[in-house]
Amino acid sequence: MLARTDLRGAGDTIDAAFLARPSDSSSDADVLATVRDIIADVRARGDAAVRELTARYDGCTVDRLRVPPEDRLHALHAIRSDVRDALQFARDQIAAYHGLQEAPDVRTRREGIEVHEIVRPVDRAGLYAPGGRAPLASTVLMTAVPARIAGVPEVVLCVPPDRDGRVPAVMLAAAALADVDEVYAAGGAQAIAAMAYGTETIPRVDVIVGPGNRYVALAKQEVSGVVGIESTAGPSELVVLADESAPAEFVAVDLMAQAEHGPDGAAVLVTWVPEVADAVDAALDRLLAGAARRREIESTLEHGGRTVLVDDARGAVEVANAIAPEHLELMTAEPEKLLADVRNAGAVFCGAWAPAVIGDYVSGANHVLPTARSARYASALRVDDFRKHIHVVNLDEGALRDVAGKVTALAGVEGLDAHAQSITIRTGSEPSRARR
Questions:
Q1: Which of 92, 136, 142, 235 is the most exposed place for a label (fewest CB within 10 A)?
Q2: Hey, which CATH number is domain 46-231, 3.30.1330.10, 3.30.40.10, 3.30.70.270, 3.40.50.1980?
Q3: Which string of b and e fits 97-124 if b means at least 16 CB within 10 Å?
Q4: Catalytic-labelled residue, pool 182, 318, 326, 329
């Protein structure tokens, strides 16, 4: 049974802190201290530190951090044909949707001043794809395909090695399909540090994207500013809004699928129908009995699972907005009516036949999404995360003379005399004198 929070009768005020996923602040502080030690070690010792940290945290020995390119092509032909077909379909779906994100030609001309943009990709992008509990080949596609559409000249990928010290074949196959330039057998905070600062083998990148556990998410936060990051893509989250039309087993299995990602995740049911909550609890009991990852799912649901009871659909949407989840399912009879009020979510899935796992694999939308309430201000990974927009300004002498007085007036009131002189030396006019 999911723990219950009853907000019926609470009114319009939703306490976001109360709804937030519980966390152990002392544990978070310990993780951050460890992450900072890892980053410092990689900066100081490069490849040697990455190898030692991989042995310590992943329990394996890596002889070569760089995976030879021919291993990717071999893996692509060695994996099962149905898996290869599924990867190709997912790649094509992702490319079709992200191809629509090509930048328009933004250009304006007013008062003789022309402004437009030139869009340039970063020189090198670093991708991170989890490979510990489950090799997320789909994440390779979700990160690499938009980078290629953006025009990034060099795309590198870090993947945690398996117990044999190798990158799983399905990850290499996905890398081959997505045209990744280099693959490295490195995971965790040490991989993030290596891509941010560079080692003898792993090159320094300009942007790091991709989801991971708390160590990866905190490492990305620590190196942000040294490199760009897309968002805090940490442990996975799902909120399901359900009414009496939602099949209880659909809701239950989607909560389980989210919990299957592992520890620190969140799986929340929000409903204004108590009978729905009871039915979902019963369905969870039935489905968990035969779940292959029952122990992991139950552990995640124990710490991050919850049912929230509210007065009505409007209250349910406000709870979702307060949680600002990575994934939001509107499993109601008329989801479109609720969609208009959704403000904070990484991705929204409408109706009983649109589970979040479709977004994980083949919808074409990206599954690298903001977590930990960062959906209040952050977005799904997109092509622009790999590009820069550079403003270009053109005007001739006549246009400069037309606006000269306005510029010198503003420069004068701000006390920036050289700014004004930049204009007057060209026009021969006296700067405007403003009282300071």
A1: 92
A2: 3.40.50.1980
A3: bbeeeeeeeeeeeeeeeeeeeebebbeb
A4: 326
